[in-house]
Amino acid sequence: MLSINNLQASVEGKQILNGLTLEIKPGEVHAIMGPNGSGKSTLASVLAGKEDYEILGGEVSFEGKDLLEMAPEERAGEGLFLAFQYPVEIPGVSMVNFMRTSVNAVREYRGKEPLSAGQFLKLMKEKRQIVELDDKLTKRSVNEGFSGGEKKRNEIFQMAMLEPKMVLMDETDSGLDIDALRIVSKAVNELRSKENSFLMITHYQRLLDYIVPDFVHVLYQGRIVKSGTKELALELEEKGYDWIKGELVA
Amino acid sequence: MSQKTLTKSQDTQGFVAQFIPTVPNGQGVGQTQRKAAQESLQELALPSNKWENWKYTSLKSIYARDYQTPVVGSLESLEGFSIPGLEADRLVFVNGIFQEALSSTSLNEGILEVHPLKSLTGETAKVFETHYASLIRPEADAFTAINTAYAKQGVFIHVPKNAIAKAPIEIIHLTDTGQKETAVQHRNFFLLDRSSEAKVVESFHQIGGANGLRIGGTEIWVGENAGLEYVKIFQGGDQASSIDITEAKQAKNSRFSIFTTTLNGEIVRNHLRIHLDGEHTETHLNGLNLLDGKQHVDNFTHVDHLKPNCYSNELYKSIVKDNSTSVFSGKIHVYPDAQKTNAFQSNRNIVLDDTANIYTKPQLEIYADDVKCSHGATTGRIEEDALFYLRARGIKEFDAQKLLIYAFAAEVVENISMDAVREHIDRLIDERF
Question: Whole-model pTM?
Answer without folding.
Answer: 0.84
